[in-house]
């Protein structure tokens, strides 16, 4: 087995798809990836998951094809970007959950399953009555299916900005109609 101490040689072997080169790459850079992820995420478990996902993607999606500078720099930057994306998704989910508290205003949540089912049906009916079909679909994909704006935009063939505008408009309409009820 060749020694991959030199990054240029290691990268050359990675680009040929050599699994031994990937093993060497993993052993050489996993600590740098972990330190970077831990510094940003402040959670060892989250950092481990993210680093594992990075290395899996690096090999399966053949991300080594895009390395045009040092491997160390690539690893650190790619892990930083994944961390930032993860934090952004968590922030988006948190904001969506806060936005959903608008349903809590004036509503006493039922204790039994039948009452919850009835309330769910009433909320669904309200959504269908006051929102246009397109806005309804956007709201359902975002808040009920938990999809991101980009995912919704791709599914609906529109831009993320249009999705954002539809969500803002839909929430305004819902707030107004909930206050009336």
From TrEMBL:
Q: Where is the RNA polymerase sigma-70 region domain?
A: 26-91
Q: Name one GO molecular function term.
A: DNA binding
UniProt keyword Transcription, yes or no: yes
Gene3D superfamilies in alphabetical order: 1.10.1740.10, Winged helix-like DNA-binding domain superfamily/Winged helix DNA-binding domain
- Bilayer-crossing regions: none
Going by the UniProt record, its keywords in alphabetical order are:
Sigma factor, Transcription, Transcription regulation
Q: Which InterPro entries match?
A: RNA_pol_sigma-70-like, RNA_pol_sigma-70_dom, RNA_pol_sigma70_r2, RNA_pol_sigma70_r4_t2, RNA_pol_sigma_r2, RNA_pol_sigma_r3/r4-like, WH-like_DNA-bd_sf
Among SUPFAM superfamilies, the record links this protein to: Sigma2 domain of RNA polymerase sigma factors, Sigma3 and sigma4 domains of RNA polymerase sigma factors
Keyword Flavoprotein assigned: no
* Source domain of life: Bacteria
The record places domain RNA polymerase sigma factor 70 region 4 type at 131-173
One biological process term in Gene Ontology? DNA-templated transcription initiation
Q: Which family does it belong to?
A: Belongs to the sigma-70 factor family. ECF subfamily.
Under what name is this protein listed? Answer: RNA polymerase sigma factor (Sigma-70 family)
The taxonomic lineage of its organism, from the top, reads: Bacteria, Pseudomonadati, Bacteroidota, Chitinophagia, Chitinophagales
